[in-house]
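Q: Focus on the shape:
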Amino acid sequence: MSNNMQGILWALLATALFAITAAMAKVAAAHYHVLQILFFRQCFVLASALPILGHTFPQGFKTKHPLLHVFRLLGAFLALSSGIWAVALLPLTTATTLAFAQVFFVALLAAVFLEEKLTPARITGVLFGFLGVLVVMRPGMDGLSSVYTLVPVAGALGAAIAVICVRHLSQTETTATLLVYQAVFVGLLAGIPLFWLWKTPDLQGFFLLTGMAIIATLGQWVGVKALRLGEASVVGTVEYMKLIYAALLGFVIFAETPDTFTLLGAALIMFSALYMMRQEQRQKALLKPT
């Protein structure tokens, strides 16, 4: 089996794990605050990073760009907390669809802050992607179809800010440093307000929160393995399977049926992202020496 095929299989597993995490978060958010759910998750991410932390301390905390880390951590916190909040407020498929706005925010921010070229293919993809987002949100004379649709879009912007910062930081910082900073400081941002927001879970709630955190952490590690085995452009296309997983879980667990606008918007978003990937693959192939 080729490395790309192995990467695709691992990516399919990772997206399934993240979709299950989102469904569990939707159940948990009915009983616990978003920050308490995020805190549980970050505790397990930190536990998985402890071996790296032990080997790299104190060097793992040394950085040449502290301000970039601040923006990256704020973006990651906004993305993670909004992701949990979004599935609590919206149907699972709708929240998942709007979260893919991250792809287009990354393309725009990369052009501004990383001086990456905004090619005609990227411009076309961004325009179709935002059209898909607008179809799902359905703005009109009476406002949005739901003001809550702004929550996953805000999370997508936060995720894009984090991605842009990581792209810059990865040139000078180690993977261990990036992992340790997010595990520790996002956990602190979520944990400090819990002095006022904490709700002690019963046994069932504890298993729900713990299971969700374990599955999310496992999904992160499986996702990294997929990217190590397969090409990013190939593995990245599998990310859109999350929409199918979310639709199935939403229907089976929450009796949710995506409406026509959500399905049309999802199709436009998937088309635009796959179009950008395909055009960039062709561009790279043309630039390769023969």
Remarks:
- The chain has two domains: 1-32+199-257, 64-172+259-290.
- The radius of gyration is 19 Å.
- The chain is about 80% helix and 0% strand.
- The mean pLDDT is 81.
